[in-house]
Automatic annotation (TrEMBL):
Keyword Nucleotide-binding: no
Source species of the chain: Candidatus Marimicrobium litorale
Name of this protein: Acyl-CoA dehydrogenase
Cofactor(s) annotated in UniProt: FAD
Domain annotation Acyl-CoA dehydrogenase/oxidase C-terminal: ranges: 243-388
Length: 409
């Protein structure tokens, strides 16, 4: 078995191009605007829009999509490197039109949309002309178990009528349309066949954006939505009837890994900030970097980041090769999310009061890191799935190897 952790020249060039664009163009333009006086929200918006145009002109648009969809055509493994680079800069993924939830919705529409749906919804999303949202989680039932969804969709002539209550509908404010998971077949024998997916225009009558939910890190467009007799044409059924659970899993599986890819960039940035601070801060007779307790923070963070990178690369490889990847993605999702939390926390500790203040980005990074352990499946749900697949592998083969990467050692 050949093991090669280098990228092809074409992929390495793409990674370096994104790195150069983010470092020397995006960061530099942000710095220039930040140094000006009386900068408005409109000024920031105009800058980000211009950077998106430049990203497209440079061929860095849609790194996660195939070439026939106007993307860079990168494989999943190569995408990991590009995503990590973009995440080191605020709005980096958005500037490349590779941000959540649009990224996952693009993949979903690419694989499940009809020609009509591609023309009216996917193509404008790919062009960056609209944004979208994904509406599945409900406040009344456990978000980690989509078989409990209560939002209903009932046939009425040539339309579906949707009624229900959603929250944490990511990206809803300002979105053009939502992908909504609703119950169409409540009596289906298999619980996973009870839900279907629909494309719902956000300006539809009965679509009510109640609020942008305030979280511990502020408002980040995770909205509460009420659907009251929302009428949707039958042409807006996405995928097959009863296929909502399958569609959701197809969307969320790779999307979980995409989150991990971006988190790698944030982890690396936090660790670099920790090291930089420790080598400059003098206290109690020596630099912080000379104190053993701080060195342990560095080494623990380095080992966890190393393991995170290997997990993401291996899971991406399995997706790219068409292999079963559920176990590896669950392991990566749990490990990388927790590594992000721990490394940001250590970096904040080394920065002391500065890290806790909003004068450094660490306060915001740590707040966001806590969300990572809930998004796309809480830690405990992934641990449950990991244990289930572990026992299944042992019971079927008398060995756990298939459930710990299936590696030849």
């Amino acid at each position: 078995m050949a093991i090669d952790f280098t990228f092809s020249p074409e992929v390495e060039q793409a990674r370096q191009s994104v790195r150069d664009f983010m470092t020397n163009t995006v960061k530099a333009r942000f710095r220039e605007l930040r140094d000006q006086e009386d900068v408005s929200r409109d000024d920031w918006s105009a800058l980000i829009k211009s950077l998106r145009v430049e990203a497209k002109e440079r061929g860095l648009w849609l790194p996660h999509m195939p070439e026939d969809a106007g993307g860079m055509g990168l494989g999943v493994t190569a995408l990991a490197a590009v995503a990590a680079e973009s995440a080191k800069v605020p709005y980096g993924p958005y500037i490349l039109n590779a941000h959540a939830p649009d990224e996952g919705n693009m993949h979903t529409l690419y694989h499940f949309a009809t020609e009509y749906q591609r023309e009216h919804y996917l193509n404008p999303l790919l062009a960056g002309e609209v944004r979208s949202c994904f509406s599945m989680t409900e406040p009344e039932v456990a978000g980690s178990d989509p078989t409990l969804i209560q939002t209903s969709a009932v046939e009425d002539g040539d339309e579906w009528v949707i009624n229900g209550h959603k929250w944490f509908t990511s990206g809803a404010r300002g979105a053009g349309f939502a992908i909504v998971i609703a119950r169409t077949d409540p009596d289906a024998e298999i619980p996973q066949a009870r839900n279907s997916a629909f494309i719902v225009d956000c300006d539809s009558a009965g679509f009510e954006l109640v609020r942008d939910i305030e979280t511990m890190s502020g408002s980040h467009n995770h909205c509460e939505i009420r659907y009251t007799d929302v009428r949707v044409p039958k042409a807006n059924l996405l995928g097959e009837r009863g296929g909502g659970h399958k569609l959701g899993q197809v969307r969320l599986g790779p999307a979980r890994l995409a989150h991990c890819m971006r988190w790698l960039g944030e982890i690396e940035m936090a660790l670099e900030m920790l090291i930089d601070r420790a080598q400059k801060r003098f206290a109690h007779g020596s630099l912080l970097s000379e104190k053993q307790s701080i060195q342990w923070m560095m080494s623990d963070s380095a080992m966890e980041l190393y393991a995170s990178k290997l997990m993401v690369l291996h899971a991406a490889y399995k997706i790219e090769q068409g292999m079963d990847f559920k176990q590896e993605v669950s392991m990566a999702k749990h490990h990388v999310a927790n590594t992000l939390w721990r490394v940001c926390d250590r970096a904040m500790q080394v920065h002391g009061a500065l890290g806790y203040s909003t004068d450094s980005p660490l306060a915001g990074m740590l707040q966001q890191a806590r969300w990572a352990r809930l998004a796309d499946g809480a830690d405990e749900v992934h641990q449950m799935r990991i244990a289930d697949l572990l026992m299944r592998a042992y019971n079927e083969n008398g060995s756990v190897n298939a459930a710990v990467g299936g590696l030849p050692l």
